[in-house]
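Hi R.,

Here's the chain you asked about this morning:
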Amino acid sequence: MRAAFDQNVIDLTPNGKEYTATVGDRTALVEIIRSENGTLDLRIDGKHITAYVSSDGSKRWVTVNGQTFLLNKSSSGSSYSKGKHGSAGHDHVSELAAPMPGQVRSVNVKEGETVTKGQTLLALEAMKMEIRIQAPRDGKVKILLVKQGQTVEREQVLIELEKS
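And the predicted structure, written out as tokens:
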């Protein structure tokens, strides 16, 4: 399986009960310890990691350490394309969407504000966990579509970013 996180390609190769994950010249052993109710307990190079997964058709949202990534199954069925919430068809605008239903707990930016890759733009609360929506790249907040306290649905667009 091949996946791309923010321009980084991840190759996953089954290796018995584990997977070998390769990103560039770095390789890690990934073991799925437990998978139930949308939660994955993983061991990556001996370190315990919990990931939260939600899905809708071929789309999967994976939240790890407060960062949410979108995983789309490709039409070939054998590879995946991953990226932080964004529209793959737009070179200069990214739509950041809610990975699951929840409530906006904080909004940390304003329209027109310049942001940097990885900056937390807003936080959602869903299923008793905080999900930070972070900038997938440097840019500028084009449109802010939500406000603190607002309830949002899965895939609802929260913020539109454009290249600055």
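The domain at 93-162 is CATH 2.40.50.100 (OB fold (Dihydrolipoamide Acetyltransferase, E2P)).

Let me know if you need anything else.
M.
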